[in-house]
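Subgroup meeting minutes
Present: P.N., E.W., G.H.
Scribe: E.W.

1. P.N. recapped why we're keeping a running log of single-chain structure predictions: easier to compare across weeks, and new members can see raw inputs and outputs side by side.
2. G.H. added today's entry (152 aa).
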Amino acid sequence: MKSLLEWAHEYAALGWRVIPVAKGGKHPSLAGWGDLATTNPDCVESWWGPGGAYEGNGIGVVLGAESGIWAIDIESPDACVLRFDDRVAASVTPSGGRHYIFPWPDNDQGPVGLETLGPGVESHGEGRLLVLPPTVVPSGQYEWASEFEVPA
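Output recorded in log:
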């Protein structure tokens, strides 16, 4: 089982701008998090590494063009039924919802901020924070729905 540090390095290596989230929570640990999110391995190490400033904190990613991804958040299994092909990364939230992660569009016209698509269904785009596995909150742990693969 990979550690938070190993996961943070893996996400950063993908170009995903990571940021620590508060232990047991879903909010960023740092003020100015949108500007401080990083792909720098030294910074990742100083945050999540042994004795790091945020060792044991969860992992978030700042969505948008710089990270190259956006997401659809389905709050509960009953909110919506969607089918995506296997090229879409999906994480399961502690409440049983899903985060579907998509590559940023080639035309750079991805979603901005938060948009409600229907009851319990939201798109998260430019500038939004998405909590990533294996972050733990009081209601449980974020997990990948299947073997983690980068969305193509």
